[in-house]
Amino acid sequence: MKRLFLYIILLAAQLTCLAQTNPKVDSLYAYLKAKGFVKYYTLCNKGNEPLKKEFHISMPLHDDNPSPILRNGKRIPEAQERKIREGWAAERNAYNYVRETLAELMEESTISNSYEYHKNGADTIATNIIIKKIGEDTHEYLLYRYQDDSKRFNAANRMFSFRGTGTLTYSGIVDSTHTGSKDFDVKTFLKEIAPILSDKSIKRRTLLCKFDAGFDVREYTKTASSDKGFNYLFGLEASSSGENNYTIYKFTNEAKAREVLCRIMECARKHTAENPTESYFMCSDEVFEPFTPFTLFGGYSSYGKGMQRSAYANDCVEVQTEMDNNGFYILVNVFKGINCLPNDWKKIKSFINDKVVYYDDEL
Q1: DSSP reduced 3-state for 194
Q2: What is the mean pLDDT of residues 251-277?
Q3: Cα 10 off chain centre by
Q4: DSSP assignment, residue 252?
């Protein structure tokens, strides 16, 4: 099978709001999740935007030729090769299912165009589709217009982006009335999850990470060693000040960790359902990603387009997870301004400007 170099530039599909979605999109997501190509979707209305649903997959295609698979010039074990080829076949089947779904959506479109180029074993495919909003006869909901890398796309309610060798991104408005127009009520949310985390058997630590307005954290990171660097650092545009107050919970029992996480996320879903115009981000499934902090939920200040989160003094909150060889972690961070996490967060007690204080041992 020829290696397919896909470049499906843009597929924008207009669907209904109020939590209704195109059944073909729902079927596509269900198929991809069942096959393990996607773990979750996200819901987000922060930045004063309408509530959007997004998911992303990557399924690179491989040549399944009869030649043996070699590693360092030697053939790998037969059982291992068979498993690899089964994975390649699953990727090709998923790719074909995506192509079939896009073709079906094209049949429903009000505007569409498609381009294909095939030469010397390399295939390029470019497709643009507009599907009208169900119940609408106008063409007001047109394709996102590509502006530049900084502004990305604008002005469409639904879009697919299918690029490279099988990278698919879907983004669509779920409810245009649920814009993040209000600050998230951090105090109430913390009270709601407090009983879940009051269990004295849960091992915990606190971490304070703070930067004063006169401290240039951007310059500091250019020369800082890895142990004094950051896993992530957001919100530098408008201010160099910020304060992060972490409570980190560690579990050695996976069942207990997942139970606690599920209860926290139940609170988050209940809170956002009752307060749909508060600004938030949420992951659909409870996930512990290996060796990297992953944000499952965030409640944010409501800031308008073109304005930076770090310009606001209101509290925000994020719930993150990670798992490693030593256990499972849930991180609850209440922060203002710069949002960051040090690389050595399992060891650090406080990180104030360039002064770091460590615990005696690692969590």
Answers
A1: coil
A2: 96
A3: 20
A4: S
In the chain, pLDDT over 70 holds for what percent of residues? Answer: 73
Q: Would the CA dihedral through 258, 259, 265, 269 be positive or negative?
A: positive
Nearest to 207 by CA among 248, 251, 249: 248
How remote is the C-alpha of 263 from its chain's centroid? 21
First to last CA, the chain: 50
Find the mean pLDDT for residues 108-117. Answer: 54
CA 30 to chain centroid = 18
β pairing state of 294-299 and 8-13: unpaired
Contact status, residue 240 vs residue 218, Cβ threshold 8 Å: yes
Q: Are 166 and 58 in contact (CB under 8 A)?
A: yes
Residue 216 token pair: 């240039």
**Number of helical (H) and strand (E) elements in the chain, helices listed first:** 5, 19
Contact indicator for 244, 340 with CB cutoff of 8 Å: yes
The pTM (predicted TM-score) of the whole model is 0.80
Report helix angle 186-193 to 254-274, nearest 10.
Answer: 140
Give the length of the chain: 363
In the numeric block, the tokens 């029992």 are attached to 253
3-state secondary structure of 117: strand
DSSP states of 32-57 as a string?
Answer: HHHTTS----EEE-TTTPPEEEEEEE
Q: What is the spatial distance between Cα 48 and Cα 302, in angstroms, rounded to a whole number?
A: 6
4-13 pLDDT, tens per residue?
A: 333 333 333 3
- 162 against 323, higher pLDDT: 323
> Strands 203-211, 348-352: parallel, antiparallel or unpaired by DSSP?
parallel
Q: Which residues contact 248 (CB under 8 A, 6 or more apart)?
A: 204, 205, 206, 207, 329, 330, 331, 332, 345, 346, 363
Question: pLDDT tens across 270-297, in order?
Answer: 999 999 999 999 999 999 999 989 999 9
Q: What was the pLDDT predicted at 233?
A: 82
Q: How far apart are CA 302 and CA 183, in angstroms?
A: 5
The one-letter code for the residue type at 8 is I
Q: Rounded CA gap, 281 and 293, in Å?
A: 16
Question: Residue type at 96?
Answer: N
- The C-alpha R_g of the chain, in whole angstroms, comes to 23
